[in-house]
Amino acid sequence: MTFPVVGMVGGGQLARMTHEAGIPLGIRFRILSDTPQDSAAQVVHDVTVGDYRDLDTLRAFAAGCDVLTFDHEHVPTEHLRALEADGIVVRPGPDALVHAQDKGVMRARLDAIGVPCPRHRIVADPADVTRFADEGDGYPVVLKTVRGGYDGKGVWIARSEADAAEPFRAGVPVLAEEKVDFVRELAANVVRSPHGQAVAYPVVESIQVDGVCDTVIAPAPGLSDELSAQAQQLALTVARELGVVGHLAVELFEVRRPDGGSVVLVNELAMRPHNSGHWTMDGAATSQFANHLRAVLDLPLGDPRPRARWTVMANVLGGDFPDMYPAYLHCMARDPGLKIHMYGKDVKPGRKVGHVNTYGDDLADVRERAAHAAGYLRGTIDE
Amino acid sequence: MTFPVVGMVGGGQLARMTHEAGIPLGIRFRILSDTPQDSAAQVVHDVTVGDYRDLDTLRAFAAGCDVLTFDHEHVPTEHLRALEADGIVVRPGPDALVHAQDKGVMRARLDAIGVPCPRHRIVADPADVTRFADEGDGYPVVLKTVRGGYDGKGVWIARSEADAAEPFRAGVPVLAEEKVDFVRELAANVVRSPHGQAVAYPVVESIQVDGVCDTVIAPAPGLSDELSAQAQQLALTVARELGVVGHLAVELFEVRRPDGGSVVLVNELAMRPHNSGHWTMDGAATSQFANHLRAVLDLPLGDPRPRARWTVMANVLGGDFPDMYPAYLHCMARDPGLKIHMYGKDVKPGRKVGHVNTYGDDLADVRERAAHAAGYLRGTIDE
C-alpha cells in the first residue's frame, strides 16, 4: 500500500497524541525528538533523536517523509525555507508558520486583513513603552518578545516604565499590547487542507490559571450563535489568508462593548494541535490530531461536530508527589466515564503531565468531574 | 512515575489497537512480534521480534514486563505455566486461557458450569462421527480440531461419513458438534479484572460471510431485554467461573425455541480483544482495548456503555487492488463521519486489513455507510 509517511518535528505530548490518531489512519509516523525519553519517543516506532535547530539533522529526517509537520513552532523559519527549496513538503509552510513564530509579523498581517486585535505596536525601549501607554489608557501594558514565548513565558505585564525594562534584556524585538479588559478567553479551532477544505470546531471557553491553560469548556457556555459564528469565521479567514495547512488555534479575548454586546479580539495563533482542542479527543467526531494529519496529507477532513452536549478538558499539572499512579487508580475508580490522557512525563511541580476529559448533559457535573480528577492527580484535592 | 509495563505476545492488529488505547493510559507497552513488519510492530516503540513458541524467547520478553497478555491464543499452555512458575504475571492465566485454546476443554467446562452449548463430544474417527450424528438429527455435523482454529480455519461441515475423514488427518483430537439451526449469531463481550470487577458491553449481532466476521451491529437489533441480560449474565458467569482476566468474547448462536422464544448457545470463546468488539473504539465510552489493559493491570474498569444509538462495524478485506489509498481517500470524502481503522497490512484477497465504524440514530443509514465503505475499500463497490 502506498500509505504515506508523516514526519513530525518534536517529541512532546502533541506528537504523542498525533501518533495515537495516526495509528487508525494506517499512515507511517516518524518523529524528530530532542531526547529518547520525550513523551512521544516512548510510544512512536520510528524515532530520530536530534536537534531541530540543525538544518542537516532536519534534512536527514525529512528525506524519508512525504510531508513534514510540527509539534511546536520553534524550527527556524530559514531552515523551513531551505527544506522547501529542497523539495520537501512542509505543512504548515514557512510563509504561514512565521505568523505563529513571530508575534510582530502576526499582528501586522492580522491588521492588514482586518482581523480585530488588541491595540499594539513594536516598542524600542522603556520610554517608548510609556509613549505607547500614553497613546491609550496608560499603564499597565502587556509586553511580549516577538519570538519564543509560550504558556506565559516571554510575556510581561508592565505597570510602570521601571517594570518595562526586563523584556528588552534579551535583545529581541518587543511588542507592546494594550492590557485587554476581557470578559473571558475563547478559542476558535479550525483545520484547513492544501486544496482549501476547512472545518471549524465549536468555539470553546479557555480558563487560564497563572498564564497556563487550566480548563476548556466545549462549547463556550452562553456564547451567542452570532458571536460563535463570527469567531469561527474569523479563524477560517485567518487560516485562508495566511495559507495555513493543518490545525489552527486562534486564541481570543471576548470583550464587552459599551452597548452590552460582545466582540472578539485575537490574542495568539498556534499552527498545530493545541491545548484548547484536547477536548476533541473524546468530545468530537474527529479529533484535532486526526484532522491535523488528514489536512497535512491533503485527505478529506473529518466531521468536527461534538459528540456530547458538553465536554470539559482539565489539564493535569505536576504536584508535590512524583508518583501519580495511586491517584490515577483512585480517579478511575471514582469515575468510570473519566477519560485520562497521560503524557508519560516525569512529574515536576507545575508541569503539564496529562489532561482529563469528561462529557455529559449537565455542565456543572461535567466540570466538577474534570476539576476533581485534575486536582486529585495533582494532589491539591485529597477527599 | 511508576506506570507499569505491559507486554503483549503477538504483533497483529489487536496488539496495534491495544497500543493505541495504551497511549492515553500512560503505560509502557511492549510486543513480541513474529516479524518487524507485523501490524503492531510498525507503530509500537518497544518491539521484540521472536517466536512465541520458544520458551526462552518468552522468558526474555517477559522479564521486563509487569504483566504479560496476548493478541492471540496460540502460546503453548505449558509455556504459560512455566512463566507463571517463574513469577511472571500472566493475564489471562493458563488455567483460564486453556479454555480458549482447546475447544474440548472449553466444552467440558461449560457443561460442568451449566452454560448451554450445542450438543457435542470428542470423536475418534469417521465412524464415530456417524454415531454422533445418529445420536441426534443425523448429518450434517460440525467438526473442529480442538486447537489452532480461527476465522473458519480448523472447522469443517461434514455432510456424510466420507466428508468426515479430513479433520482427522492432522492427528489432533476432533470435536463434533451439532450443526445449530440458528436465527443469527450474537456476541457478548465482557471484561473482568483480577479482583473480580467486571463490565458487560451491549450484546451485538455478528454477521459472518464465508466463516469470517463481516459486520457487527451494536446493539443487536430487536434483541429482547430479557435475552440481552441473559447473554450478558452468561458471559459474566463464564468469565468468573473460568477465572478470565481481561476481555472475553462469547460468540453465541441465537436459536428459536418451539414456543417462539429464543435462547442462546455458546459457539466460541476468545480471551483477548475480539473482532466483535471493534465497534467499541468509536461506539462505547471505553473501548475493549482500553478495558483489556485496565483489567490486566487490575485498574478500575471504564464505562462500557454505548455513545450512540447504533454503531456498525464492517471489516475491510483485501480485494484485487493492492493499493487501497485512492479508495480510502474517496471514502473519507463521501462520509466525513466514517471512522476508518487501517492495520498497515499488505493487501491480499480476503485478508482483514482494517475495519470501519459508523454510528448514528438511523440503523439503515448507519449500516449502508459501513457496508459501502468496506465494499468500496475492497473494490466490490465502484459507484
UniProtKB/TrEMBL annotation, chains A, B:
User: Keyword ATP-binding, does the record have it?
Assistant: yes
Q: Which UniProt keywords apply?
A: ATP-binding, Ligase, Nucleotide-binding, Purine biosynthesis
Catalytic activity as recorded in UniProt: 5-amino-1-(5-phospho-beta-D-ribosyl)imidazole + hydrogencarbonate + ATP = 5-carboxyamino-1-(5-phospho-D-ribosyl)imidazole + ADP + phosphate + 2 H(+)
- Please give an example of a GO cellular component term from this record: cytosol
Span of domain ATP-grasp: 107-297
What pathway is this protein said to act in by its record?
A: Purine metabolism; IMP biosynthesis via de novo pathway; 5-amino-1-(5-phospho-D-ribosyl)imidazole-4-carboxylate from 5-amino-1-(5-phospho-D-ribosyl)imidazole (N5-CAIR route): step 1/2
Q: What is its EC number?
A: 6.3.4.18
InterPro entries referenced in this protein's UniProt entry, alphabetically: ATP-grasp, ATP-grasp_carboxylate-amine, ATP_grasp_subdomain_1, PreATP-grasp_dom_sf, PurK, PurK_C, PurT/PurK_preATP-grasp, Rudment_hybrid_motif
GO terms (molecular function) for this protein are: 5-(carboxyamino)imidazole ribonucleotide synthase activity; ATP binding; metal ion binding; phosphoribosylaminoimidazole carboxylase activity
Which amino acid positions bind ATP, per UniProt? 103, 144, 177-180, 185, 267-268
Give the Pfam families listed for this entry: ATP-grasp, PurK_C, RS_preATP-grasp-like
Keyword ATP-binding attributed:
yes
Q: Which family does it belong to?
A: Belongs to the PurK/PurT family.
Function per UniProt: Catalyzes the ATP-dependent conversion of 5-aminoimidazole ribonucleotide (AIR) and HCO(3)(-) to N5-carboxyaminoimidazole ribonucleotide (N5-CAIR).
Q: What is this protein called?
A: N5-carboxyaminoimidazole ribonucleotide synthase
| Gene source species | Actinacidiphila rubida
